[in-house]
Amino acid sequence: MADSGHFTFINLPILGGQAGITDPTAPPLSGKRSGEITAAYVGAFFDQHLHGQHEPLLEGPSPANPEVAFHNP
């Protein structure tokens, strides 16, 4: 995810921001937006792999999430 840091993928950007705690090394992706993106992709992953639902979000880049890049080794 472009403009993300190590702590982007935990609750620190959202909950920490509400408590006045920030990660000084984090790039400028907002806590709200990073939380939305993380929730969407983690939710899609679980729905696909645990519930057997097809999740197009996991197939590749999405216009709704231009910050997310896919790397296929």
Task: Give a quick summary of the entry.
The chain is an all-alpha fold and 73 residues long.
Textual characterization of the structure:
The protein has 73 residues and is an all-alpha fold. It contains two helices and no strands. The chain has helices at 12-19, 31-51. Helix 1 (12-19) runs antiparallel to helix 2. The protein is globular, with a radius of gyration of 14 Å.
Essential attributes:
single chain, 73 residues, mainly alpha
- Count of distinct strands: 0
Please trace the helix and strand order, writing H or E for each element. HH
**Total DSSP helices:** 2
Rg, please? 14 Å
Give a short account of the largest sheet: none
Shape: globular
Mean pLDDT: 81
Helical residue percent?
A: 25-40%
By secondary-structure content and strand pairing, the structural class works out as: mainly alpha
Oligomer: single chain
Which residue ranges are poorly predicted, with pLDDT under 50 across at least 5 consecutive positions? none
Percent strand equals under 5%
Distance between the termini: 17 Å
